[in-house]
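Obj: model holo form, ligand = 6-phosphogluconic acid.
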Amino acid sequence: MTNEVRHIYADADALAKAAAVELLGLALRAVSERGVFTLALAGGSTPRKLYTLLATDPAYADFPWKQTHFFFGDERHVAPTHLDSNYLMVSNTLLASNKIPLANVHRVRAELPDANMTAADYDVEMRSFFSAPSRFNNCPRFDVILLGMGPDGHTASLFPDTKALDEKERWVVANWVEKFNSFRITFTFPVLNSARTVMLLVAGADKTDMMQKVLGDDRTLATYPVQRVQPTDGTKIWMLDRAAAARISKTY
Ligand code: 6PG
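Output (holo structure tokens):
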């Protein structure tokens, strides 16, 4: 059963601050209950502020960095030094604090020339980390998966009308995205929907239309990839700024 909540903040800074507070709380609880916190990071631009806050603001000094393992919900098929690399963005923000043991950072080896090999390699990495006790429905049970949403309703790299939308078995796949003329490496819905908590960070006026289609009163269900994120036994938290939420109501 999915517990779905939405929070609307004045702007992207307030959203990032609230997301940092929420993550700190979830991390400390996970570590006190299970000794470890597993977090999948989102790419794109919206989470940058959050990652920078966590890395630099003394308010988050209690973050259990050494007990936290970081994964990537999706990655562009480029080297980690490439400007489009989500790993590069994360290493310039979150990892810049040097508080995180590099062994706790599970990077996608997107520099491998064959995108399918990259995805298979990451699938193996995740299966070796998430042993049976930390699986749910034969999928990794992440404590938190951070996600964003594109103006087309995509999330992670699950874009409308792409093959990965129908994947039922594999945890990670290489998804061909015509408009980028490129592959993306992405978690699949079985993984997203096995998480304890999915946090969707959505900011900016370029998302207003899609937010209305996805969460508006006259929305149709499961039309857009982001709507198919429905944790089977978990919580879906929408964290929106006022611009993105301009045409939806504050509550369900
Ligand atoms: C990526 C992301 C992607 C992102 C959305 C929103 O690699 O691009 O994981 O799913 O979250 O495209 O991107 P912005 O935050 O830049 O609007």
